[in-house]
What does this fold into?
Amino acid sequence: MAEATPLLAALFADAAETFGLSRPAGQCFSAVWRAAQPPCADDLVTILGLSRSNVSTALKELRSWGLVGIMRAPGDRKEYFTAPADPWEVLRLIMAARQRLVIGPLLDRLVAAEARIEDVRIAALHSVLARVERAASDLTGLEAQAFARRIEALAEDSGGGSAGDKAKKKKKKH
It folds into this structure.
C-alpha cells in the first residue's frame, strides 16, 4: 500500500492539472481521499514530501473548490482534512468549481463584449454558453447519486456505454 502512494499522488497530480487545479493540490487530494484517518497538514508534508507552504497553498485551493473539509479532534488544535469518498461527489464538486471559476466569468465577459460589439457570432456564442452554464448548474445542483444517474443516462443516450455494452449491441451481418 505504501508503494501506491507515490504512484497515485502522481496520477492525481496529472488529473488535477487537467481539471484546472495545481499539481500539489492533486497530490494532497489523493492523500486525503485515500487516508484511513483524516491527515493533518504535517502528515501530508511527510507523506508527499512537499514543503509546508506547498501543502498549505494546496489545501486552501482544495477547500475553495469544496473538495476537502476540515475537522478537529477534541483537545487537539490541529486541523484534519477530509474528502468525500464518493467519486461522483468529487466529480460533481469539480464541475461546480469549473462552472464557477471558468464558465461564469467567461459568460460575464461575453455579455460585456456583446454590449460593446454588435456581432451576431458573439451573440450566438453568448446564447450557447448561457445554455451550457444552465445545464452545468442543473447538473451540479443535484445530489451525488442523482448526478451519477443523470451522467450515466447522458452517456447511454450518446452511445457512450462500455466496450462490452457496444459488443452486445452489434448485430451480426450475414
Observations:
- The two ends are 51 Å apart (CA to CA).
- Helices lie at 4-19, 23-34, 41-48, 52-64, 87-116, 120-140, 144-157, 163-169.
- The mean pLDDT is 89.
- The beta strands are 69-71, 80-82.
